[in-house]
Design goal:
Helix content is 40%, strand content 13%. It contains 15 helices and twelve strands. It starts with 5 loop residues before the first helix and ends with a helix. The structure holds pyridoxal-5'-phosphate. Pyridoxal-5'-phosphate binds next to α4 and α5.
Length: 427
């Protein structure tokens, strides 16, 4: 059968209604599941049969949404988490522990950087952060004998660097470790990292996937292509018996396609409980159905906005990978042929004061820390999230005082440009 397009999978992947069943995904609002005999339930606890026992671990509504995302990414298995933070934490902690090491791109989401460099460092996991544009020698030098994975973001939030997935996948595989890619800003509509060699994909579904600023959530997808059994000494958690599950060996019982996600649910979800609610999964599911259409509009609106800004006399610089003048234009053409998301950053003449004046005169774009939402939103870090920093500190953190981040939504583009043009005129 011909492979279905992403628009079709977004609507029909995962839940498929049988004769007389609800058209829309049912919300299974239940903590627990009833069984006829203790023996039936016992088989579930030994992971010997499929089914549900307690919604902290798994719930049918959440699983069906994960199944849709797995199909959209072209993966073999997936799980939802209560946030993108939980997804990134689990994706690494599932295969690394105290005494292990991870190579990560340095341009990643601030929350992930903090998770890695502070909180997971306290757990005894060391991270080496590399410039995504580093030389081959620098990348090579980052690996250690105890390295367990490589991590990067397809389009980094907020730096908007484009990650050379193919290059980093080759380097990871040469060292016998998987590549984990946070695909939040690109979504599977913009880029499917597995097609470029990535092994695990994570998402903050809070952004474009849910898309309407209603629901925090995350997801982990496995490609099923990384062969853990080649490195049993490196990945004992996947390749040797788990005493907390009656000696099951995940790679033997669930194969390469299922081992990573099954272990992640059975151990990490059981112990940390970062469980999404079925209501949240349902809202995400509604968002996913229209993601391909929304994604196209976010990209085309942002492209027009970026071109408008680049030609405006009061704008000093524009960072958007879809502009031919951008450093990442060629990588964006390769990995993001449908467009390079809806987020733009730019600077205005006159620095901090001018940026504050610009923000004050917006009427349509709302001031929020959020991004990747159907409503256009705008942030001036120097006067909000980063206000405790001096201009010099901001400059060295890569967030200059004049930087404005604009997340272009789905409004009429002429209305949006008129709003920005008016605010620029007020500076
Ligand atoms: C927002 C974001 C996260 C964190 O996700 P939450 O859903 O807020 O926990 C992780 N990675 C990227 C790229 C993000 O944009």
């Amino acid at each position: 059968m011909k492979k279905q397009g992403i628009e079709t999978i977004a609507l029909h992947g995962g839940y498929q209604a049988k004769n007389g069943e609800p058209r829309q995904l049912p919300i299974y609002q239940s903590t627990t599941y009833k069984y006829d005999t203790s023996a039936d339930m016992g088989k579930l606890f030994d992971l010997e049969s499929d089914g549900y026992m307690y919604s902290r671990l798994a719930n049918p509504t959440c699983d069906l949404v994960a199944k849709k995302i797995a199909a959209m990414e072209g993966g073999t298995a997936a799980m939802l988490t209560s946030s993108g933070q939980a997804a990134n934490f689990f994706s690494v902690f599932n295969i690394a522990g105290c005494g292990d090491h991870i190579v990560s791109s340095a341009t990643i989401y601030g929350g992930t950087f903090n998770l890695f460099s502070v909180t997971m460092a306290r757990m005894g996991i060391e991270f080496t952060f590399v410039d995504p544009d580093c030389s081959d020698e620098e990348l090579e030098a980052a690996f250690r004998p105890n390295t367990k994975a490589v991590f990067g973001e397809t389009i980094a939030n907020p730096a908007l660097t484009v990650f050379d997935i193919e290059r980093f996948a080759k380097a990871a595989h040469a060292h016998g470790v998987p590549l984990i890619v946070d695909n939040t800003f690109a979504t599977p509509v913009g880029c499917r990292p597995f097609e470029w060699g990535a092994d695990i994909v994570t998402h903050s579904t809070t952004k474009y996937m849910e898309g309407h600023a209603s629901t925090i959530g995350g997801c982990i997808v496995d490609s099923g292509s990384f062969d853990w059994t080649k490195y049993p000494e490196k990945y004992p958690g996947l390749c040797t018996p788990d005493e907390s599950y009656h000696g099951v060996t995940y790679t033997e019982r669930f194969g390469l396609g299922g081992a990573f996600i099954t272990k992640c649910v059975a151990q990490l979800m059981r112990d940390f409980g970062s469980t999404p609610s079925p209501q949240s999964a349902y809202l995400l599911h509604i968002g996913l159905e229209s993601l391909p259409v929304r994604w196209e509009r976010h990209c085309s609106n942002a492209q027009k906005m970026a071109e408008f800004l680049e030609n405006h006399e009061k704008v000093t610089w524009v960072n958007f990978p879809g502009l031919p003048s951008n450093k990442y234009y060629d990588l964006a053409q390769k990995y993001l042929p449908k467009g390079s998301c809806g987020v733009i950053s730019f600077g205005v003449k006159g620095g901090r004061a001018a940026a504050e004046a610009f923000m004050a005169h917006l009427t349509l774009a709302s001031i929020e820390t959020h991004v990747a939402d159907s409503h256009t939103c705008c942030l001036h870090p120097a006067s909000s999230t980063h206000r405790q920093m001096t201009d010099a500190q901001l400059e060295s953190a890569g967030v200059p005082a004049d930087l404005i981040r604009l997340s272009v939504g789905l409004e009429n583009i002429d209305d949006l440009i008129a709003d920005v043009e008016n605010a620029l005129a007020q500076i």
